[in-house]
Amino acid sequence: MSRAVAGPLMREDGRGIPRSLPLLAALVEAEAHSAAAAAAARPTDSGLVRAFRRRCCCCADAAESDLVRSFRGGAAPKVPIRTFLERIHQLTRIDGNCFVLAGIYLTRFIPSADAMEAGILVEPATVHRLVAVAVLLGAKFAGHSPVKWTRVFQDSSEGAIRAGEMADLEGCFLRAIDFRLFVDRAGYKAAGRRRRPGWRGCCRVSGPGWRSCCPSSNVLSEVENLLSSVVH
């Protein structure tokens, strides 16, 4: 990454935390809260509808995707996202570039065909695992040694994300984004300009509390807009 791109995002605060860390934390945490509010606003199902849903869910369990099992199969960490990321940073001392890359990888994953088919969004049940694997891939791509990294996520999540989960999470994430990890200068600029009409294809049921398009598109695009502003 060039100095022009990296400068504003790589600046560190008094504790040595790069600006990109709280930015990523704020964006994904806001998105998770938005998803939770949307779910809470849905009308309550009648007893007949609930019974039908349970029957459908039971039938679908056998065909449950790897993505659903990986990102929703374990306990959801109770640690706030910013605290989670700060713990990771404290244990690994990775630079701010890793958090920038993590944000970009999330914008590639959420609208991917695999994620949309599985219904994986940035929400309380998935946010920590999504962020964990995105940061792991960003760190690897940035050249940081992955030695003992799986324990880092277990310790940072207070045991909710087990060390043994990370290999499956990484594999599912990489396949969903078609192993597209490289981001060049032109890619940063294009990301800021792109409106991603394809994201509007992941529409949900309309109504009170629901957005007209995939919730993650609005919040995570702020990462790309900021990146666009620092390369001009």
Biggest pleated sheet: none
Percent helix, as a range, is 55-70%
Q: What is the residue-averaged pLDDT?
A: 74
User: SSE order, as H and E?
Assistant: HHHHHHHHHHHH
**How far apart lie the N and C ends?**
14 Å
Radius of gyration: 18 Å
Alpha-beta content class: mainly alpha
Strand content: under 5%
Description of the structure:
The chain is mainly alpha-helical and 232 residues long. The protein has helices spanning 3-10, 20-40, 47-61, 66-72, 81-92, 96-109, 113-118, 127-141, 149-156, 166-176, 185-193, 215-231. The two termini are 14 Å apart.
List the helices and strands and how they pair.
Elements: H1 3-10, H2 20-40, H3 47-61, H4 66-72, H5 81-92, H6 96-109, H7 113-118, H8 127-141, H9 149-156, H10 166-176, H11 185-193, H12 215-231
Pfam families: Cyclin
Protein name: Cyclin N-terminal domain-containing protein
Family: Belongs to the cyclin family. Cyclin U/P subfamily.
Q: Could you provide a short overview of the structure?
A:
This is Cyclin N-terminal domain-containing protein. The protein is mainly α. It contains twelve helices and no strands.
